[in-house]
Structure prediction request, 441 residues.
Amino acid sequence: MLDKNIVSSTIEAMGLGDFSQATIRDIQTLSRQLEEKTGEPIIHLEMGVPGLKPSEIALRAEQEALQNGCATQYPPNGGIPRIKKAASEFVKAFIGVDIDPLCCVPTTGSMQGTFATFTAIYHAMGLSSLSLGEGRGEVLLIQPGFPVQTTQCDVIGLGHVGLDIHDYRGEALIQKLDEMLSEGNINSIVYSNPNNPSWVCFTEEELKGIGELATKYDVLVLEDLAYFAMDFRKDLSHPYQAPYQATVARYTDNYVLWISGSKAFSYAGQRIGVTCISNKLYHRVYPALQEKFGVGEFGNFFTNRLMYTLSSGTTHSVQIAMAALMEAACDGSFNFLNDVKEYGRRARFMKDVLLQNGFYLVYDNDMGEALADGFYFTVCYPGMTGLELTRALMYYGIAVFPLDTMGSTQQGVRICTSFFSQAQQPLFQERIRAFAADNKI
Prediction:
């Protein structure tokens, strides 16, 4: 256990109180300060940052691109032809759906892709001329989820509502979504699959229901594939053969997919993602866009208005790196999931230690099936709220993140496996046992 007085005084000095307003960055800063003041290592489970070395394929491709002079040239707003073609082929190979290269737009990380998509929806719905609460002005966030997406909506001026899936799976989920969509205020549905932070994965049956509702009510489905194919219960690593990454794209034309280079490709620092807009949606003309911007097509507006004004495209060299990774995955020379399976091994160890010491999983099953072991999982401890547990574990040198800030109605914390190393296993076990001994159930 860390020095109690040092931990308490540092929390007080940072003004974190009960942690209800703490961001991930706040907890990370607190952790670093405690390491400096106590001389003890903190086990960092709070940050969803990749912790694996990127492939030489990407490093070599980007280095060669820079040596060949790409840094002197602006990339096209919609992406260089190579990455557009590679992304289209990657979607075909690992998702099993056809999206034209034109409709695959590289962005500065999926974060920029989500921001641009929300902005496009805001203007396509003509919301800039309406008061908040009028029209189809709300995004439905299936939660728990990535807090920044809520912040992005707030920055843009998009309203949003949430639905915690803890008590809604299968047919219950579809019925609840039908009920919410029938009110007429929702323009889009957002979720991650696998889910951040619960790691639940929607089934094809659930995605079919969501897709059918999207068509019925003419809403868009925004599918965040930040943890692409990382449901390790299935081998999704073989191109052009089932099983494929589960997706709503098989069941509606009203979709946008966000594919990230950060987690599955361990290329987070270079900020690269691809926004894949369905062929039909890309070419769909919205009168509000035509009237205000002179560009009615959703995809054209996304590319030549939003990407242009946001950043004039995505860094040239990193597009080449991402294209090289996707090409190698498609031709079978690079199994991009081999390395990231390490996250699953880390999760299995930590889960075993926590469950043996009185903790329990919050989101604990996938339609009756055990959750996959992956990048995240969620736990709580009897008699404690998520905020209390976040603070209590800090005294034992373990940094986590409370579910309260992620749209969850459940009590608990998110555990991220990315920075956990094999060398930390004995220390983790020792600290969790000490916590359990001091907090007997």
Remarks:
- Residues 362 and 379 are 5 Å apart (CA to CA).
- The longest helix spans residues 337-356.
- The chain has a mean pLDDT of 95.
